[in-house]
Amino acid sequence: METVILAVVIAVVVLGALGGLVVGSRRKKSLPPPPPAAPDITAPPAEPHVGDEAETPRDEPRRTIEEVDLPDGSAPVAVEEPPALEIPEIEVPEPTAGRLVRLRARLSRSQNALGKGLLTLLSREHLDEDTWEEIEDTLLTADVGVAPTQELVEGLRERVKVLGTRTPDELRGLLREELLKLVGTDFDRTVRTEPETSKPGIVMVVGVNGTGKTTTTGKLARVLVADGRSVVLGAADTFRAAAADQLQTWGERVGAHTVRGPEGGDPASVAFDAVKEGKELGSDVVLIDTAGRLHTKTGLMDELGKVKRVVEKHAPLDEILLVLDATTGQNGLVQARVFAEVVDITGIVLTKLDGTAKGGIVVAVQRELGVPVKLVGLGEGADDLAPFEPEAFVDALIGD
């Protein structure tokens, strides 16, 4: 009995101990963790407001408004002006009267090799066949041409035989007379720019590249402006690069209006528009610079004929000037023939006549075409284009 009671007591004690352990573990699990310590927070510095100083004010002397020097408004305020547009200055060309007289000295210095050579040969004591052959060679070298040379030599032979004595003055006189016969004094060398009916006068300038055609057109505009004429330029040379720019520059120098088209455009269209604007503006003269056609290209020459036909829908051409390089000699005659077949040449302009002894081209080209030399270029200056005067030309050839 006692044993049973002891076992019950032990069981109760064991159960009580186990119950205490369970309750203690539950309590430990349910306890929350202790709260963390509160951090020390420092308030940010307050931002300055409008009117506040950026830093702690310092004790500094301050000037009152009476002590501050204020501008009194008398000083000018610099205002930058926009750059002014550059307007090309219009030149005033020199009058045409006496141009060749002024340039005669230059022509004489460069051209009188022909005249001096002939005078030297004619001054020989005995004029045998060898001397006359030398005279012929001198004339042929100067590009006078075969037929004119024979004509001149025959005239000289006859005059020398009749004259008998040959003083220097007599030789110079007879040579001058014979050369004047060749050059011709009965041609009408006026550049026709005044139409019989209504304005404007229309002048077309033709020639191959390199002869100075565009430059001649610009110089001719200067000649006309110097005579008080108003001019419109037609830049119908649309194939050569910068040809239109070159012509427009010439026009701007003297205040002439330039009509141009797109590069590579239709030359006939530009020429047509130039004449149309010339009429609308009431201009006195329209100068049309055509392309420098190669005389061996048939298609291009046909196009030059088209330009002529299109222009004549407005009005007939008053002048067709062929520009030739005086230094090309017989090749220039070939060019002249082909151009004469396409358009009716009415006058010739000889350029680069200075610095060469080939003045005989004047005779040859007039004989070839039957039209006169009307203008000559005697230099690179803007006013070195002058009317051709046979007497002055011959005097320059034979010298003083």
UniProtKB/TrEMBL annotation:
Sorted UniProt keywords: Cell membrane, Cytoplasm, GTP-binding, Hydrolase, Membrane, Nucleotide-binding, Receptor
As recorded in UniProt, its EC number(s) are 3.6.5.4
**Subcellular location as annotated:** Cell membrane; Cytoplasm
The cross-references to Pfam families, in alphabetical order and at most eight, read: SRP54, SRP54_N
Which reaction is catalysed here?
GTP + H2O = GDP + phosphate + H(+)
Name the InterPro entries on file: AAA+_ATPase, P-loop_NTPase, Signal_recog_particl_SRP54_hlx, SR_rcpt_FtsY, SRP/SRP_N, SRP54_GTPase_dom, SRP54_N_sf
Q: Does the keyword Mitochondrion apply?
A: no
Where in this protein does the record put region Disordered? Answer: 25-77
What residue stretches are annotated with the SRP54-type proteins GTP-binding domain?
372-385
Q: Which domain of life is it from?
A: Bacteria
In which residue ranges is the amino acid composition biased (Basic and acidic residues)?
49-66
Binding locations of GTP: 207-214, 289-293, 351-354
**Is Cell membrane found in the keyword set?**
yes
- Tell me where it mainly resides: membrane
| Topology with respect to the bilayer | Peripheral membrane protein
Report the function annotation for this chain.
Answer: Involved in targeting and insertion of nascent membrane proteins into the cytoplasmic membrane. Acts as a receptor for the complex formed by the signal recognition particle (SRP) and the ribosome-nascent chain (RNC).
Listed under subunit, the entry gives: Part of the signal recognition particle protein translocation system, which is composed of SRP and FtsY.
The family classification in the record reads: Belongs to the GTP-binding SRP family. FtsY subfamily.
In Swiss-Prot or TrEMBL terms, this protein is called Signal recognition particle receptor FtsY
Provide the organism lineage as a comma list: Bacteria, Bacillati, Actinomycetota, Actinomycetes, Kitasatosporales
